[in-house]
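pls design
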């Protein structure tokens, strides 16, 4: 029994060291990995040295500015990922018999959707399934789902990567809007082509070509190249500029419905919109996970009918 307990303890320590190693490899930084996991850089460095001694190879070349993975380290990284994925799959498979989802869920999404809708929905999910550990990151850029080790990326708009699995969890459309002051100065937009003569406030979103607006209306699909005096990579900034009268924006209906209702925004080309449904994107290896399936189903349910549901609009 003593030897068996020692073996279990050693295996648990090895799995933790492999997780540390993978985090360092992804971030090319002991400090970054330590910050992410909540350990000291010195402890991370010590555990990596122990793993190098165990494997008999050098995993990283260390300099004062950067940590570079070696060729042996790259081979070990590939094996470590497989080992950790297999261990996760084992626990997932064995826990299928339990009705309670458990384990860590790493989720990414855009800033405003995450703050206003996804975060409070995940709070409800955690109350329902207290065995889940949830890590949410908000960013207005497309993530590398596999390379950055996320289970789910919640996106607005088309999913273009063919190696990923897309689960539709919400209906959505983007609309054009501007402040009454801007439209009073510059005039009404009658057809999409006229947008090229207007100040269009550009947001570099996660999945669209910058400065190209694709619209669907009475004449079918139309594309127009737009320009403007101001652009940003943060949706809240662009929205505020539009409220202050600097130009026209394209935004999800749920994001501007309150402003349309109180009159601080007016719909531009109300017969046109851009389809932009909400998708929960997973890698093939995690798409069948019980915890991922539970989370995706709950998001779909809550975005449609819950207290933080998306306004779809006409």
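designed seq:
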């Amino acid at each position: 029994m003593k030897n068996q307990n020692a073996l279990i303890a050693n295996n648990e320590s090895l799995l933790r060291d492999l997780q540390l190693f993978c985090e360092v490899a992804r971030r090319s930084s002991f400090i970054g990995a330590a910050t992410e996991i909540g350990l000291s850089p010195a402890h991370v460095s010590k555990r990596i040295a122990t793993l190098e001694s165990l494997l008999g190879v050098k995993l990283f070349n260390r300099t004062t500015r950067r940590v570079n993975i070696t060729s042996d380290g790259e081979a070990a990284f590939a094996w470590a990922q497989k080992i950790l994925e297999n261990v996760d799959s084992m626990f997932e498979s064995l826990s299928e018999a339990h009705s309670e989802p458990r384990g860590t869920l790493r989720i990414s999404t855009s800033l405003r959707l995450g703050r206003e809708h996804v975060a409070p929905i995940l709070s409800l999910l955690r109350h329902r399934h207290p065995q889940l550990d949830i890590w949410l990151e908000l960013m207005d850029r497309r993530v590398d789902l596999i390379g950055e080790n996320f289970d789910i990326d919640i996106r607005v708009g088309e999913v273009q990567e063919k190696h990923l699995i897309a689960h539709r969890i919400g209906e959505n459309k983007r609309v054009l809007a501007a402040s009454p002051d801007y439209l009073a100065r510059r005039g009404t937009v009658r057809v999409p082509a006229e947008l090229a003569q207007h100040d269009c406030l550009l947001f570099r979103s996660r999945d669209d070509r910058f400065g190209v607006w694709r619209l669907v209306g009475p004449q079918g699909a139309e594309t127009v190249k737009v320009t403007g005096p101001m652009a940003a990579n943060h949706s809240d900034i662009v929205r505020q500029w539009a409220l202050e009268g600097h130009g026209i924006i394209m935004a999800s209906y749920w994001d501007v419905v309150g402003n349309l209702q109180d009159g601080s925004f007016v719909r531009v080309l109300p017969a046109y919109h851009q389809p932009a449904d909400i998708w929960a994107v997973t890698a093939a290896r995690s798409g069948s996970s019980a915890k991922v399936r539970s989370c995706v189903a709950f998001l779909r349910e809550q975005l449609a009918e819950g207290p933080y549901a998306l306004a779809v609009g006409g």
